[in-house]
Amino acid sequence: MKFTLSRVTLIVVMLILVMVYTISSSGASGNAKSGNRTSDPSRVMPISESASEGSYDYYLQQFQDEKQPSREIVIRGADYTAAEGMEPKMITELGGETGKFIRTEESGSVQWEVDVPESGMYHMTLRYYPIQGKSSAIERELWIDGKLPFNSARNLSFHRVWVNEKSEIEQDNRGNDLRPRQTEAPMWQESLLRDKEGYYEEPYHFYFSAGKHSLTLVSTREPMVIDSIRLHQYEQPISYAEVKQEYESKGYTETSGHLIKVQGEHAKYKSSPTLYPITDRSSTSTEPYDVSKIRMNTIGGNNWRVPGQWIAWEMDVPEDGLYKIAIKGRQELLRGIYSTRSLQIDNKVPFREMMQIPFFYDSNWQMNVLGSEEEPYLFYLTQGKHELQLEVSLGAIAPLIRQVEASVLEINAMYRKILMITGNVPDPYRDYQLEKQIPDMVKVFREQSDILNAVSEELIRLTGEKSDKTAILTKTAYQLADLADKPETVQKRLGQFKINVGSVGSWLLEVREQPLEMDYLLLASPDEKLPKANDSSFRKVGHEISSFFHSFFEDYDTIGSTSDEDKSVTVWIGTGRDQAQVLKAMIDDTFTPMTGISVNLKLVNADVLLRASLAGEGPDVAMQVGNDVPVNFGMRNAAEDLSKYPGYDELIRQFRDSAMVPYNYEDQVFALPEQQIFNMLFYRKDILEQLDLEPPQTWEDVYAMIPVLQKHNMEMALPLAQTTGVPVLEVNRAYAMLLYQMGGSFYLDNGSKSGMDTETGLEAFKEWTNFYISYKLPLTFDFPMRFRTGEMPIGIMDYTFYNYLSVSAPEIKGLWEFIPVPGLKQPDGSIKRDVASGGTATVMLKQSKHKDAAWEFMKWWVSKDAQVRFGREMEGLMGAAARYPTANIEALQELPWPVRDYQSLEEQWEWVQGVPEVPGGYFTGRHLDNALREVVNNGTNSTDALYDYVQEINYEIQEKRKEFKLDGMH
Description:
The protein has 26 helices and 41 strands. By secondary structure, the chain is an alpha+beta fold. The strands form 9 sheets. Strands 27, 28, 29, 32, 33, 36, 37, 40 and 41 form a 9-stranded mixed sheet that branches.
């Protein structure tokens, strides 16, 4: 016993020493950066003179000498002159206002006529009301006189307004705070038309000559009600020095003795549902604080990083006068650069310096006084309620990002030119004489090297330090300069060149995100001393020791409950904690109140399900299991047949027949579909246009296209099954696509033998292997990277690749599209575009003791309302990268897809077929892949190779049918 206690004492002493050392090393820095915080736009490196045609910079260059008239022109929404693809509805009362407004739908266009009395550059403001839609931002294109003024006028975004559903934060039965659900609070808003990506700090300027013009708004996502469009001049905020003179001339005085604190998590309005309160347990200074329980005590963090997102707080000012403002915040995610915010008070920027407020990297909390602690900026506020809004801005970094993005496009274009001559694997000993074949190569390399060096130097000036962010640019700039000096070495260094350009693309992704976590805002009289942002060293040590001991008693992995009903269902979910928390919130506020059934939700690795079921310790319901699991459990009497439960027939009408196929076996159904994922054709519009190619509609088009691509050393991608890290190899989607389009099937005679050795199956296999034998398509490739660089400008991938491109490939935004896959032309002229689908399912285990309650949960979970809400909240939580591929037909329609993209998805979905699961079916995908590699690697005849492997598949199927005593054996 003494020995045990001494060991514990020793551990505690060592822990204290480590923490004291760590704390003394890190220090409690306040505003510790020495970089140039004055982000003066005039000092930022100017954009390249050679702005590309179609860009906003190019547009501004065309009209740089035009004047900016001071007059204002108002166009009433109700005075539209034409509409196409929609029927605008007149509304006379909305949002507490009366008048004449028009409702515009999520697709189609509306046109207005405007008489401009004086030529010049005008800003444009839209007054709108965000009516109920799919909970995503509203998007429109703006056309003037039937033309797009510049490319980014395609992407105008208008925010919705979100609030916490309940004013108080609720707790679960463990005493932990629950994240409040975000609900929409629509209101009238005015929005200056500006760059959606935040690349331009000022709103867009539009040129109008004197006379009549047409304005057209084309709907691309979500409906909205429009009150008016104004052409006017946006009033630029004046400097603080001028504002200070104004204070003196008006006799404004400093207040005394006031310190008003507003907690960050008590924000009044937000522009996105992702901006919910979050928890921080790293410091006792965070308010509110609890050493062991989860408290929703901050807001923002990584969720508050996208330019244009804003959060607004309401402050009650006790008396008229001058105040200082401080923000207790932490920016610990973006090292080597600062995060920027702009401040508005009552919808107005107080002075120019508030357009760019920098928050530098630091792992500790900082008390950021606007201005400086020695001389803070003062703000005149009248007594009463005022709204303070902080918006994510790129600030002085914006022109640098624009320049780097233009450079990446230019360098990638040159990379493709080199590739067209050298191919993917250049001969290192051959002199390709690239500088002669591509006369501008050396010039482009040198120009882009100079540009990247200039951006790196400007970044060092702005941040006051060198970092990994500048190192990437410097390294690429150095290589470009060296390639310009030694053009004969280009082919030897092409691989590293590609890696460096890819790193610059990743730099763009990182730098354009501007995270910031906030604890609280302070409005204080100038004479008030502000609280410290961080704890003393001893309080930190006490917090760490206390947290350490509480960790033995608190279970942070279990998702708490708000109810203690006896009627309970145990549900396992195998994805992430974010998904589990969203689902738990939905259960607590919807399912349990509606049914009286409580749910014990557990985060469990999906691999554990089989072992737990064998041990009799499995759940009632398992969610998000692979397509191969339900039938394999069902045939072993471990999964429940759902077709016998009440409401089943009505329930499955929510899905396409193809979604149910993998879960049907011997007239029983062992699961309900959650996700259904299928292939689409992705292609680079810019490259196909450059090669004078149209996206292929049939396989004949594909066969004609491949030689053209290969002539320019480019390739097409066909889907390949993942062969590592998966328990069961799924059937190859490319083969399945050809097999189904030719009218074949994987199994015959109710799954008792393979259908791949039929004439159709063998023909499909020959066509498939032909792509690799005759057309030399690659068997291994990094499609995301090669699609971005343009080496593979076209490929067939599952449609969730859309999510990746939307988020991770900003440099090619607007340059790609996805459409239905190529197909076989039919005698009537139609095209058969069948594809196979994969997905996940929810299954009820046979050992469940609460089957009726489990069935109620499953019905609710796969219903339209639950799937829509889960999909929207996951996208709100994690962004467009987490767009949910639901199997529910109506739910997918309600998710925030742009209309045109959804129409392409729906067109392909009509052709989707499910792949059935049969006893021994796990051999099908495995041996199909073996047969492919036998043909490609060993040159075996395709018919012989597949026929041999089908014998193996049939043998395994027969053995399994014997094991399970099934009839119909052959």
